[in-house]
């Protein structure tokens, strides 16, 4: 932990790259952990693709409404808060997340780059426009129930979740911003990701190639490819505050 805390203390530009694991401590199930996996009950190909939506829009829409409800009931945890605190220490901190929840924003982080979109930005399946204002608060679902998606008034197209599905490209401008941040940072913290979904999983490698140090924080050991990397094994809600607090709250013991 001490070595990681010293890396952060000496950095001017930091990228915080996060996956589902940072939200696990807020009670949001991850995707591939056997115990907490959302998909223990579902098959991703049945839920997170445009074809799945064409075949059964109500099931896919209900699945996302269920996830929205889960996130609405959750709170940012100590890891999200420590990331937001890090940005208050005079360092340039860019959060690049694979998560579609808003826990980084609710913890106080701004300018968050959502590589895979966001739960609260539905868009029209037909014309891809995001409706000016759409309230979904009237739509509730318990896990597994189907709910017919609302339609965009102007073109009557069904609303779909504003997320990147399997087989879809990441928005070019979003990807470009994430790559630029990774290429320009001194340190990249990779927190709670299995690193199996591309191109997002390239971000730590892009930082490494540009000479940055990379700290992986995960409940399981991360295989290292370079001497510029280190792996901290533990929960994000414990590890992230431990390496941030020496700078964010000087005098704290790591
Ligand atoms: N603290 C830190 N790491 C954790 C914690 C925790 N409390 N709990 C779980 N983890 C780790 C797991 O060991 C795993 O490596 O977080 C990782 C979660 O991996 P995934 O569930 O695969 O989530 P993620 O890497 O974000 O998935 C990437 O895949 O399904 C798509 O679009 C989806 O954005 C998602 C992408």
Automatic annotation (TrEMBL):
Q: Does the record's keyword annotation contain RNA-binding?
A: no
> Which segments constitute the Deacetylase sirtuin-type domain?
1-254
Keyword tags: Cytoplasm, NAD
Q: Which positions does UniProt annotate for substrate binding?
A: 64, 67
Which residues does the annotation say bind Zn(2+)?
Answer: 127, 155
The reaction(s) catalysed by this protein are: N(6)-succinyl-L-lysyl-[protein] + NAD(+) + H2O = 2''-O-succinyl-ADP-D-ribose + nicotinamide + L-lysyl-[protein]; N(6)-acetyl-L-lysyl-[protein] + NAD(+) + H2O = 2''-O-acetyl-ADP-D-ribose + nicotinamide + L-lysyl-[protein]
EC?
2.3.1.286
List residues binding NAD(+): 98-101, 192-194, 218-220, 236
Keyword Cytoplasm in annotation: yes
Task: Give a short account of what the protein does.
Answer: NAD-dependent lysine deacetylase and desuccinylase that specifically removes acetyl and succinyl groups on target proteins. Modulates the activities of several proteins which are inactive in their acylated form.
What is stated as this protein's family in its record? Belongs to the sirtuin family. Class III subfamily.
Domain text: 2 residues (Tyr-64 and Arg-67) present in a large hydrophobic pocket are probably involved in substrate specificity. They are important for desuccinylation activity, but dispensable for deacetylation activity.
Q: What is this protein called?
A: NAD-dependent protein deacylase
Q: Which organism is it from?
A: Pseudomonas farris
The lineage, from the top, is:
Bacteria, Pseudomonadati, Pseudomonadota, Gammaproteobacteria, Pseudomonadales
């Amino acid at each position: 932990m001490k070595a990681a805390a010293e890396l952060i203390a000496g950095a001017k530009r930091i990228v915080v790259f996060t996956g589902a694991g940072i939200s696990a401590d807020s009670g949001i199930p991850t995707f591939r952990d056997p115990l907490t996996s959302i998909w223990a009950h579902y098959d991703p190909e049945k839920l997170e693709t445009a074809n799945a939506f064409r075949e059964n829009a109500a099931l896919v829409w209900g699945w996302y409404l269920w996830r929205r409800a889960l996130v609405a009931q959750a709170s940012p945890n100590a890891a999200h808060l420590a990331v937001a605190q890090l940005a208050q220490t005079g360092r340039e901190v860019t959060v690049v997340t694979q998560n579609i929840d808003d826990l980084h924003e609710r913890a106080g982080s701004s300018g968050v780059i959502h590589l895979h979109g966001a739960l609260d930005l539905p868009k029209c399946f037909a014309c891809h426009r995001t409706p000016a204002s759409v309230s979904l608060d009237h739509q509730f679902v318990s896990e597994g129930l189907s709910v017919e998606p609302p339609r965009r008034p102007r073109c009557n197209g069904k609303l779909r979740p504003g997320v990147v599905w399997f087989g879809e490209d990441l928005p070019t401008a979003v990807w470009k911003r994430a790559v630029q941040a990774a290429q320009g940072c001194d340190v990249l913290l990779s927190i709670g990701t299995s690193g199996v979904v591309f191109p997002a999983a390239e971000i730590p490698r892009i930082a490494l190639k540009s000479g940055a140090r990379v700290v992986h924080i995960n409940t399981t050991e991360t295989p290292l490819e370079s001497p510029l990397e280190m792996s901290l094994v533990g929960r994000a809600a414990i590890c992230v505050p431990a390496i941030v607090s020496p700078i964010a709250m000087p005098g704290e013991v790591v």
